[in-house]
Amino acid sequence: MNMGGPPAKVRAIARALVERGHEVTVLTADRGGEQGSEVRGQKSEVKGQKSEVRGQRSGWVANDHGVEAIYLRTVHNYRATTINPAIFGFCARRLRDFDVVHIYGLYDLFGSIAAWFCRRQGIPYVLEPLGMFGPKVRSQQKKRLYRKLVGNAVFEGARVVIATSETERMELIEGGIGEEKIVLRRNGIDLLEFQTLPAGGAFRARHKLDDSTPLILFLGRISFIKGLDLLIKAFAEVSQIHPQARLVIAGPDDADGCAEAIRKAVAEFQLGDRVILSGPLYGNERLEAFVDADIFVLPSRYESFGNVAAESIACGTPTLVTNECGIAPLIDGSAGLVVPCDVDGLRKGMKRLLEDEDLLAQLRSGCAEVAKNLSWEEPVGAMEALYHSLVSEGRAPLLQTATKLAADGRR
Q1: What is the pTM of this model?
Q2: Burial code of 268-281, b = ≥16 C-beta within 10 A, e = fewer?
């Protein structure tokens, strides 16, 4: 449960809804590692849930701050797509017990199967693409094929489609999603996580960096869509003027070739120990990196929102983002800077922040107020109101749903 990105979003919304008196179940895949270990530690609870997940052979059940979390066993996976046969049994037995279903993400079997059962049973569902709608950078043909075979029906059946920024909203409209179906709701951050931050110096000490070393941090997936190739080139130019500066790139390898490209670029530009590839950071280590960084940079070619930038600001670290990040208008000039998504823009942004101490201090002092305005309170309230409205509208008549499915099959 110490993961960032979409899992952190789902966790935050689910916990907040429970605190408001709602019953919430999260159905997801068991990906092993820390998450799976946490669930496996609750075997006694699982035994009482055999009718729902068929015991330990098909999944595990855990309670996370009042949220029922069901992890279905993964029998196979390709990249982020998992095969979880137990989802069919769960949807057939339990889905009708829920008033509303919220599906996060695209291009996976989990959401597609749940959406099919929702349409069949007339259950209203909300679809949140998580910025995955536009085919970006890789697998464009596969994504278009998925949308043609499965995805279009998922979108058509959704009562509401959530966009987390104006950028994503326009992308959905341009992609043919009806404007009347789209609801704009920003992401948020859990301010409680950042109330007690670790003391400064731990991250720097691990990497043998003293307090005077200018430290620039990127934290996220190691993927071309994150613009890391642009960042390395920009930093190589900055490094010629500020050879004492260090760039930390932290995150899991997205297996798209970006990690290898970064290593080659570091060698090509002779950056040596000026670039630190730390690997993934979770939990307290993640916070230590934010606290010790002078500048956080998110050089993405596309971000529907950019939660990691909000987390950086919550740690009091001035942030540099590209104009392709949905969060950009919320932080520009108050807790960070926004630059064009190219080498020149990133170079100028980093150089300006490294050289203008007054500006850096001004942005740092603005972080607390911006972070307060980025809490989950407002977005969760909006989701609660949306769910209430869908429940009041009632379920779609089963006959109409069956007719629609038949029509879908003839296309």
Answers
A1: 0.82
A2: ebebeebbbebebb
**CA nearest neighbour of 250 among 214, 289, 210:** 289
Question: What CA–CA distance (Å, rounded) separates 177 from 158?
Answer: 11
Residue 349 three-state SS: helix
Tens-place pLDDT, residues 169-206: 999 999 899 999 999 999 999 998 899 999 999 999 99
Domain boundaries, the chain: 6-188+378-410, 191-373
Kindly report the CATH class assigned to 191-373.
Answer: alpha beta
Going from the C-alpha of 270 to that of each of 170, 235, 264, 266, the distances in angstroms are 41, 12, 10, 6
Ramachandran angles phi, psi of 160, nearest 5°? -140, 145
**HEC readout, 239-300:** HHHCCCCEEEEECCECCCCHHHHHHHHHHHCCCHHHEEECCCCCHHHHHHHHHHCCEEEECC
Question: How far is Cα 383 from Cα 40, in angstroms, rounded to an integer?
Answer: 31
Q: pLDDT at position 406, please?
A: 32
Which one is predicted more confidently, 144 or 190? 190
To the question of domain 6-188+378-410 being in CATH 3.40.120.10, the answer is no
Nearest-10 Cα torsion for 86, 89, 92, 98: -60
Mean pLDDT of 326-334: 96
Number of residues that make up the chain: 411
Query: Are 62 and 39 contacting, i.e. CB atoms less than 8 angstroms apart?
Result: yes
- How far is 91 from 113, CA to CA, in rounded Å? 8
Angle at alpha carbon of residue 48, lines to 46 and 53, rounded to 5°:
55
